[in-house]
Design brief:
mainly alpha
Length: 189
């Protein structure tokens, strides 16, 4: 047998080794890219980004690189703060204090505007004269009387219609009884 002729098992094993090497390299490349981009590195994010199994990122040869990148990121905030890229606690406290002062000023302005609107509405209500209110009450009273008269008329009509319905129902019952007698008499003869 020559060395060129490989068994199917050898071909499969070689293919798996090559695939494993490609996946490992892809995981290592992702770690380097995440470090360069300043993205937070975890085993899970590396596995998800590289589209490899979580088992692979914990495997020997990959795990060490990820752990080193995580340790490196743990020290970066101190370096970033000294470079001026991250706010110091004093700066954050100052921003918070300024924000609180602005909120207080906005609340005071809101209260002033609310009071001004309240006073303006009060003045508008005071401008409406008693005569206008009396006229409006008169209009509403007359409309109420018309509605009462209309309601009384409708009740009277309803009573008439109810009486008419009762009369028609009696006529219908009498007609049915008469019809039954006629049918019975016709069937007997």
């Amino acid at each position: 047998m020559s060395s060129a002729a490989r068994t199917p098992g050898e071909v499969l094993a070689a293919s798996r080794r090559a695939d494993s090497l490609r996946k490992r390299q892809r995981a290592l490349d992702v770690v380097q890219n995440m470090l360069a981009d300043g993205e937070h590195i975890t085993f899970t994010t590396v596995a998800r980004t590289a589209k490899v199994s979580t088992w692979l990122v914990y495997a020997e040869g990959v795990r060490e690189h990820i752990e080193a990148a995580i340790r490196q990121q743990e020290h970066e905030p101190v370096v970033a703060r000294s470079d001026g890229r991250q706010a110091s606690p004093a700066s954050l406290k100052s921003d918070l204090m300024m924000a609180r002062e602005e909120i207080t000023a906005l609340r005071q302005e809101r209260d002033r505007l609310r009071e001004a609107v309240r006073q303006q509405l009060g003045q508008q209500l005071d401008q409406v004269s008693n005569r206008q209110l009396t006229e409006r009450i008169g209009e509403l009273t007359e409309a109420n009387r018309r509605l009462e008269r209309s309601g009384a008329q409708m009740r009277a009509e309803a009573e008439q219609l109810t009486s008419r319905i009762a009369s028609l129902e009696n006529d219908l019952a009498a007609t049915r009884t008469s019809l039954r007698r006629m049918i019975r008499d016709e069937n007997r003869s």
